[in-house]
Amino acid sequence: MRIAAVEVVVTCPGRNFVTLRITTEDGITGLGDATLNGRELAVEAYLREHVVPLLVGRDASAIEDTWQYLYRGAYWRRGPVTMAAIAAVDTALWDIKARAAGMPLYQLLGGACRVGALAYGHASGRDLPELFDSIRAHLERGFRAIRVQTGIPGLDTVYGVAASAAGGGDRYDYEPARPTALPVEESWDTRAYLRHVPSVFEAVRSEFGPALPLLHDGHHRMTPIEAARLGKALEPYDLFWLEDATPGEDQAALRLIRQHTTTPLAIGEVFNSIHDYTTLLSERLIDYVRSAVTHTGGVTALKKVLDFAAVYGVKSGMHGPTDISPVGMAAALHLDLAVHNFGIQEYMPHTAETLEVFRTSYTFVDGLLHPSDSPGLGVELDVDAAGRFPYRAAYLPVNRLADGTLHDW
Ligand code: KDG
Ligand code: MG
């Protein structure tokens, strides 16, 4: 089963996506997601210039060998661009192998360990009434676990807070990447955030009761001691997790946070290698691995991370915002079913425009996602539809403190 053709498709049905499509000599196609929000064309060029020429003529069934060839063979290892490119190739080859076998991918990964993947949705509000409406809308839609992000008094815009109250339903209007010439500048004040957030969780718990799993994303903004303080302050509200409390590259920071709080910790959406996790896992400093298939070198590499995590009792909690394409989401769902140490799956539904380009078969019923039993990943790319939505440059925002200092966004 030789690779006959490889195409890189860049499309913007509401937001940008980079998709790799590999076709074998016998006409089987596989898809991989290579979307790196705000830096899409770097991955497209990496694939087009340096990877596609190496793939044509290779054995499409040699997935591990191709992974090693692209990783070790480049000499320059890791990094978000390289690993998103490798992820796309790896995922497309798994898609091909499963389609050739006539099976959904999760069967090739060992079969299902569960009937579906518990998904969490993003509720948010600029104030408590908006937040409560958004949580209710998510519960009505079937979510059984909810991420809570809130406006902060004194700050105009805050990460994760949608502009419309109900935010759930078929649309989710919080899209951080914006098609402006320069990144949008937001303002940030950690002290205001730390003063406000515990009171929000107190209010949410008293309105919605003790049982609902609640999550929160700190989005890399705190120092270790600030994060420790927040984790401790949130203990009475029994969070499912506190995510990205500190910037991800500082693994040792988690030691300090861990000494001070029993709030479960999740990190890893910006990681791209198993080597980003060695300290965190072997010292049991986190509870959930946040990596996405798209950004961590594909199904092959993320399965290894999750198997390593299992040794230490750490579970999966894969990244699933709208900048993970439906192809990346489907790949996540197959792994979610197949790994024993599944924890939860993030799920931000894509827009109708996106789903015109990517025809998905995964389902969301009673709070659980299922990848479907279609052969392969279960996603088809409509290339004509993709062509109707040309690329538009867009950037993630940046954050500044009141005195102008640039802060983590
Ligand atoms: O591209 C950036 C987003 O993927 C990120 O801001 C989303 O933090 C995020 C999350 O937890 O979904
Ligand atoms: Mg996050």
Describe the structure.
Residues 129-264 form the Mandelate racemase/muconate lactonizing enzyme C-terminal domain. GO terms for molecular function: magnesium ion binding; mannonate dehydratase activity. It comes from Saccharothrix carnea. This is D-mannonate dehydratase. The longest helix is centred in the first third of the chain and has 22 residues, at 80-101. Residues 166-171 have low confidence and may be disordered. The chain contains 13 helices and 18 strands. Helices cover 36% and strands 19% of the residues. It has 409 residues and is an alpha/beta fold. It is globular. It folds into two domains: 3-104, 2-Layer Sandwich (Enolase-like, domain 1); 108-373, TIM Barrel, CATH 3.20.20.120. The chain binds 2-keto-3-deoxygluconate and magnesium ion. Magnesium ion (MG) binds next to loops.
Blueprint (SSEs and pairs):
Blueprint: E1 3-11, E2 17-24, E3 29-33, H1 40-55, H2 63-71, H3 80-101, H4 105-108, E4 117-125, H5 128-141, E5 146-150, E6 185-187, H6 190-208, E7 214-217, H7 224-234, E8 241-243, H8 253-260, E9 265-267, H9 278-282, E10 288-289, H10 298-311, E11 315-318, H11 326-338, E12 342-346, H12 352-357, E13 358-360, E14 363-365, E15 368-370, E16 379-381, H13 383-387, E17 398-400, E18 406-407
Keywords:
TIM Barrel; binds 2-keto-3-deoxygluconate; Enolase-like, domain 1; D-mannonate_dehydratase-like; 13 helices; 3-stranded antiparallel sheet; alpha/beta; globular; binds magnesium ion; mannonate dehydratase activity; 409 residues
